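Task: complex structure prediction.
Instruction: return C-alpha cells for all chains below.
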Amino acid sequence: MIIDVHGHYTTAPKALEDWRNRQIAGIKDPSVRPKVSELKISDDELRESIVNNQLKKMRERGSDLTIFSPRASFMAHHIGDFEVSSTWAAICNELCARVSQLFPDHFIGAAMLPQSPGVDPKTCIPELEKCVKDYGFVGINLNPDPSGGHWTSPPLSDRQWYPIYEKMVELDIPAMIHVSTSCNACFHTTGAHYLNADTTAFMQCLTSDLFKDFPTLRFLIPHGGGAVPYHWGRFRGLAQELKKPLLKDHLLHNIFFDTCVYHQPGIDLLTKVIPVDNILFASEMIGAVRGIDPETGFPYDDTKRYIEASTILSAKDKHKVYEGNARRVFPRLDAALKAKGK
Amino acid sequence: MIIDVHGHYTTAPKALEDWRNRQIAGIKDPSVRPKVSELKISDDELRESIVNNQLKKMRERGSDLTIFSPRASFMAHHIGDFEVSSTWAAICNELCARVSQLFPDHFIGAAMLPQSPGVDPKTCIPELEKCVKDYGFVGINLNPDPSGGHWTSPPLSDRQWYPIYEKMVELDIPAMIHVSTSCNACFHTTGAHYLNADTTAFMQCLTSDLFKDFPTLRFLIPHGGGAVPYHWGRFRGLAQELKKPLLKDHLLHNIFFDTCVYHQPGIDLLTKVIPVDNILFASEMIGAVRGIDPETGFPYDDTKRYIEASTILSAKDKHKVYEGNARRVFPRLDAALKAKGK
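Output:
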C-alpha cells in the first residue's frame, strides 16, 4: 500500500471560496456575514471535485490512500478573530470528513485548527477533538505562525503550545507543522514562507528540550524538511555547539520529514542524509507546483517517481517510506486500516 | 589560487565588543555614549586576532585569500537609529580595511552597510563609496531585513533598493545578501534566520523582473543558497507557474551561491544541481559552526575538503569554484590581483 501523508483539499467546489470571501467581507460589515447553513455543497459536487483531480492522479501515479486536510494556503489564520477562524475551520474540516466518508478507501482526514494570532492555542482543542473522535481524523496541521508571515507567536517549544501537545499525546496523533498564506510581502507563500517555516520549526525543536517534556510527541515537517536535510551538517554542528545530544537521539524519535521535494537530486539527498525510519511518502498534490518538468516530461510533484528511481533506498526501505512509517507515525491510521483488514 | 568569498571578522579584539556595548547603552542614556576615538585597537592586536585564527586555518586548510567583512551577526541593524548604525558600520569596516592592509595577500574587504529599519537605503551610499574607493573593498553585504527577523522592509525587488543597485552597477561590485542577528524569538540566528533569508531573497528575485532593470547586477546568496538547491525542482516549477523564463535565463546571470554547506552530501547536491559557473568557494570560518564533525574527524566548516572530495566537479570545474568565478563576480578583486601580477 502506498500512503501519501500530505494532501490538501485544493480542489474544493467554488462555493467554498465564495462563502469564505463573504465571510471575510463580513469582518468589516457584519450585515453581509454569511450563515454556515448558506454554504451548500452536494455529495455529487464533492465526488466530482475528487474523482477528476486527486483520485485521478492517485490512480495514474499509483498511490492508494491520502491523508487529507483542508487547503493549507486557505487556512489564513491571520484573517479575522477566533470566531472567524473557528467557523472556517469547522467548515473546511467537515468537507474533508465528507470526502473521507465518500471515498473511505482513498482518503482519511487530518484537521486544520481554528488558530488565531494572539489567541491561546488551547482554544483549538474542541475542534481537534471533534475531528479525531467524530470524524476519525488521524492527525492535525499545526501552524507555528498564525500571523501569516509576521511570526508573532512564541516558538513551538513555548508552554503556550503545551495544551495542544497534551491532547495530541492523549489521542496519539502527530502534527504536521504547516504554515498558511503569507501576508508579508517579503515572503512568497509556497516559495519562501513554507520552506522557511519548516526550517524554523526544526531549529525551534533543536534549541529546546521539548521532547524531554513530551517523549511521544511527533511532528511531521513537510516539504522535505525545508532546508534541513541539505544543511544536515550545519544542524549537527549547531546541536554540538549547543551541547545537545546527537540529532538522531535529540530529535529523530519525534521529528519526521515528508518527501515533497520535486526533483530527483533533492530526494536523493533526503534519503541519503535522513534515516529511512524518519521519511514518509508525500506529494502535496494538487498543490504549489502543478506543471510538467521539461527535464523529465513528468509532473514535478509526482514524487513517487523519484522514490521508485532511488538507488539509495532498498525495497524494504521503500516499503517503510510508502507505508510502514506512516502507520507508525499515525497510529490511528494504522488502526483504521487494520479494522478493515488492511 | 583558492579564494574564500565569505569570511567575517568574528575574532576582533574584545575592545570592539566592549565599545559596541557602550554604544548600545548610550542609546538610552546619551551620557554614556562612547566617542569613536575611545576605541583603541593596535595593529599588533589586529595581527594577533588574525594570525592565530583565520590565517592559521587558511594555512592549515589551504586557502589563499578571503573576502573579509565585518561580523554578520554583530551588524545588528535593528539596534538604534541610522546614526548608531552609521558609526558602527564605519568602525567595523575600518577594522576590516586595516586587516586587509596588514595582510594584503590574504584579505580583501567587503563592506557592511549602515542600514537601519525604515531608513531609506540610499543613506548607505557614502559609506559604501568610501569602502570601495578609499579602502579598496570589492563587494558589500546587503541585509534584506534590517529589522532583525521582523521583515519590515519591502522585498529586494522594490524600488527603495534601487539607489544601492545603481551604485553597485556603477562601481561594478556584487552584494552578498546576508542578514544579521535575529531579535525575533522564533528564529535562531544561524540555524533559521540566515537560511530563511537566503531562500527568501532568491524567491523575491524569482517573482520579480529585477534583473531586467539591472542586467549586470550580481547577488551572492550565501550558505549554499539556503533551501534553494535542495528544492531546485520546486523553484523551477514555481517559475514555470509564474510564466517566468527558465531559471538559468531568468536568474543565473545574476545570482550566485557560495559553498557554505557543512557536509559532503549537501555540497554534492549543490554541485549537481547548480551550474558550476554559479558556485563560489566559501567557508564562513570562523563562524556559526566551529566544531569537529565526529563523522569525519574534520571541522564541519572546512568546506574545501568537500570540494576536493567531489566526484561531480572536474579539475577545471574546481578551478572555477575556487578562483575563476570569484574573479568574474568580483571584478575589483580580479583587478586588484592582476595589479599584483596574480
